[in-house]
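1st attempt posting a full record on here, be nice pls
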Amino acid sequence: MVFDVRPAVEYRAGHIAGAVSVPLSELQGRMRDLPDGIQVVAYCHGRYCVYADEAVRSLRRHGVSVARLEDGYPEWAREDLPV
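the predicted structure (as tokens):
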């Protein structure tokens, strides 16, 4: 699954195609809803955005297999990838 961990208003303004909105502020409350064995890629504003870094740390503490997308939504959109 691809998690967009930016605030919901930013997700609504545009996001990577197929991404699920899981704002960092809601991540802890939604952990129990994650299926077992899930693999996650988290992204936010870009390479230097800390939201995705924090999400990765939190998900790993809960035993979720997770990676951080190196870039973020702006770079994805600029490359004309699916949004």
